[in-house]
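I hope you will forgive my troubling you with a question about protein structure. The matter concerns a single protein, recorded as an amino acid sequence and a row of backbone structure tokens. Please examine both parts with care and let me know of anything in them that strikes you as inconsistent. Here, with my thanks, is the record as I have it:
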Amino acid sequence: MRFNKQELTTLATQPSQKFDKEGVLFLRERQEGFFRRSEISLERWCRLRGNLLFYFKSREQWSEPLGVIILEQCSIKVDSPTTEGPYGFHLVFEGGLSQHLAAYSEGERDAWLQSIQLASYDCMRSQLLALQQRMELRRGQDPDLDVHMWRIRRGHTVDPSELPLCEISLACDNLLCDGHGRPPNPVLVVHVYIPMDGVWIKYAKTEVVERSSNPGFLNTVSFRASDGLSSETRVRLTAYDVREHVSQTATPIGSSIVTLGAVQETDRLRIPLRSPSGTTVGFLSLTVWNLELEDKGGSTESTPCRSAPENDIGAVFSHRRSQSLPPRLGIKLKLPHQGHLHQLFANPHVQTYRFHSGLGGDISVHEVMAESRLCFQFPQQLLALWIQEEKELLQEVAGMGELREPWHSRQVELLDRHLQLLHLYSQAQEHLQAHRGSFFKPSSRKHDRTLEFAPVNLHLQRMWVQNDTLRKSGFYDIITVGAFTAHSHKSKNGGLIKLLQQLKESPGKDNSSLQGPTKISMAHGAIQAIKQLRREVVDGMRALMKLAKEKQTAGMLPICEDMISKTRILLSLWDPGLVEEALSFVEEHKVAQPVPEETLDGAEEGLGSLELWQQQTLSPYRRITQQLNFDLKSPDVDDLVSPDSPRCTRNFWNLPTNGTVSRLKGTDSNVDVQKSLSQSESSQRDDQFVIFPDADGEYKDEEIDSTNEFNSKPASHKTGKNTDEIEVDEQTPITNGLETDPGRKFLDTQAMCSSPSANYYKPTDEPEPWDLTQLNIEASVMCLVSKVKFLCGRCGSPAVRLRSQRGMGRSRSFRSGLVCHQVPTEETNSPDGVVTVQPTSSVSSKNSSQVEDMKSIVTDAEKEGLVKTNEDTIGLSATMSSDDVLNKTVDTVQKAVNGAVVRNGATVRNKFTEGLDFASIVDWTCELRPSMRKLRQAMDGLLKTARLTHSVFRVQEDSRAAQKACNVRYRRDVCFSQALTSLVTGLMAKLWCQKPDPTFLMVLTTLGPLVSFEGLLSYYGDEIDMWGDMAVAVEDLVTVTFILSRCAANASSSNSSDANTINNNRCGSGVQSQQQPMPRVVGSRTALTVYLPVPDNVHSLLPLTSPSTPAVSFNVTPVFFNVGINEMATLAESLGNTRPQDKSNLDNYERLNEYYHRFRKLHLPVEPPGQRGPSCAPLQPSLADLMENLRVVVHTKQSKNVDVLHVSSRICRRMKGLRFTSCKSAKDRTGMSVTLEQCQILMSEYDLAEHEFQRALDCMRSEGSRRENTCKNTGVRKYAFNSLQLLTLPRLYRPPAGTYGSAQT
């Protein structure tokens, strides 16, 4: 430790009366010699003062001390008793050091032991606390019991919407000065008496007013009936004089006791303060308000007013009186309506204030800080999506089959990488699910890897203001959250920004590696596009099935046209050259799979091949894939599984033979989900395929009904029926699709878009030629459209041609080279007729094989009644080229559909209609179902090939670059999860926790809201990484699409969809079991969609939807301005390191400016200055002036340019945007920023008096909710600033005396 030798010497040589004990002790000291070291006990004169034990060589008055022992963090160990002296003991310090001391006699030793034990600071502090407790208990107070602890014991939390019994404002006058004429530093403490327990509990406290005998306090006190208070409750108000701020040492001035009933009966009460001796030491004034609900007499929740209702204060326009004047009689202040705050936020902390305006009136302020219930719930949904995506990629790579070296090792590396990621994501999800306790992640756990996907210290900071003079009130929300960063990933390299730049720049050695990432991204993009288009095509099928069930021809043809255009795009997505390259690679490098010699039955095929594998030496690839059970699936079943709903349809094969549904729980989170299904699916395969069955069966009626019940939004708008059911359905959760009948899930787009595809090639499969895949899609679309036209009475209309004749003859050599190894097998077991290529041991010539493929397509059409002919009429022969075969087949199918085959100069009817009597078709859905199934399976084949191509390019990627990209992606996911959770919290607070704002909803539905992130990170040290992570996470929010979906009913209603709501009774919140509206996220990593439920009163203000736009969707425009304010920022600026931060602020200004120009075109009305005319309102700069001001300050080179933050926050609020404030842990710097912003709002919009600004700021920082936030995070009610940091903070960001000190940062 550091010490001042001169000061210690002066302290040690003072007179004897200054010391607690003096005497002779033997000290064991180390003696240094030439040959050895020894320890001997020497007699020393010792003097004890406080916790300092000085020892001297002699007792002479002027001798200097030889040393000092500091008696802290030590224990005493007494030596074993001896018959003769000296009598010794050890001082054992933490860390292992010890000092031996001894006395002449046993009595003297015991006296020294007693003095040393009482000397430490800890001992003195415990004595002080014990004395305080004795005094408090003597006076009938429980010293450990304040109102917060009282509420915790009763299992009760404050409801900000509760109407208090009354609210009082306090002031004192004529307080006595001390003997030197110095006025006191008064503070008032309010206690209430609880008769049940017979104790006084500390109920509230005001701020400290410096040096004033006539203080007026800004904090107000609200008395709540929920705390057990009534008109008989006794209230004691005590005034203290604070002598020292840091330790809060205070002496009582005087107190008064009144009953709450007496306070409620009057508007103003002045009572004397009595000292303990009974003399009057001053007077206390209480100003009393009775509040009423803000929306009393206004509109109901279901029919909100578009403009704020006029308050019924009457037409008397006069100033609110200040506290020095009696208030006007009959005045009623409003209590803000907080909406459904208690359902989305927990553990609110409420603080109320009364400030003076410049016009002599009062400004009423309610400050609320609450924890978000979404903090640990929402990231679980994102993790579920990423887990499914990793499973997809894992199965994709395994589906390639085993490759030869050098690709085999790369393939195994890729599998290992996905398994590792799967493990990390799954563990993170489990930890979040297992979390119990508070609803926020404290800053002390920000390095905890188990909760790294949850944002740090996420809170809603809300201020409600009412200025009765201006007749104006409003909510101001800020979401406070720690920086979006991966704290546990130590890397001083600039965060995600630098890592992503390095990834882009790294492939510069050879050209092949340059093309790798672009091919991978192209393939991945194509897969996502195929999934999206297929989802839309299936939506069309659902709409057709609904119309077919109702036999409504109106609307069928437009749906068909839309499906035709979608399938056209589907066929043009892929570059055939890339597919050819990938399939050639697989053909060249794939290890031949062992095929059993005997042809096994369907039930034994998969298991037989597994037994054969087990007899051989397993390669790493086979060992991994066997563990994952990828090869246990039966090919027949696999071809029929729907691609994007495996959780439903995989279990669909597990239906018992009696037709009842067996529900498998939890299979969607297992990698080896096929294992549980493979045992039963083989024995039940033939009789359980009921997806669109061809013939009437036991499932048919159920299937038709379910198709109608599970209709989608587009279908509902076209028919105009069942709209309410559908909107409820929009809320049906997709996280567990096994709860309902799997049969109806075949066309469930909600399950499709959230779960991984089960459609992959198996390692034993040979890939299907690209042209065959395209031909299957064309033929099935033509079949379906022709049937629809027949049902609509338009069977003579021309057929559809999806591709031009020219595009049919591509990649001849590639196709013929592939087909020579394949012969299609007749699939008599399954009712599908789509061309599939299965591996067999026989080999034929390429042309005859190709002809057989084409014949099977025509045979398909013949089954449908499209073609009734033989091979000769088509003109296929084994000598034709593959392209001629393709063209000839398509022409024949099209002519059959179109009825264009000419016989003797006359056009023959469509073959499809022959043998069909329109009147005899009872069920249209039975006619459409087979064609729809075939189209679905054909699209599945397209996706299979796309996935295979994607996995080939990923295996070819450089392994080191791939590993680096994988690490960056994981870090990016961590940061993005924190950012999106915070953003969704802000949006839900705006939509659910206040009255609907029509202007905000207008901006939301046209432009999408502006989201302003304010950062206070320093561009130095670890915080550079945090800044880089946060910048990328904020930028990634642009890619998220939000869709507003109507919540079935208000969350308190009993008929709301309980599947979508979650009861939150943790922490003993005391709120009744009310259901929480839960946002849900679907899609893929690159294209996420978040469904936000909205209450009825918000939904009624949204624009009407149409069939083309079935739901209101929007994207946000995020901007991120960062300016460091602490001592690290001073260091960074002095070193000139802040250029990246400045450039980022400039770029974000450009984005904000672009948004402003779009916002200006909306021509929204300027916010009215107030109800009493512009003369009384504070002057407000226009939005254009603010934008110009921001342009100037962003380009200004200035140290700690916090004006950027102030101006951008005002612009955000004026454009109805959402505000977010962050520092490292959203505790200290964020607390300073949020309180400053709140006071600036009061000054600029509510006419807070200029001379009151600093006082109001100090009051919010010392007694407001942000001080409580520091206590929740660290257990200490102090901001973690030291004196050095305080000097480097900008003046407006400095906390008041006594509120900061040494605490955990």
The mean pLDDT is 76. The chain has 39 helices and 33 strands. The longest helix spans residues 511-550. The CA atoms of residues 329 and 713 lie 56 Å apart.
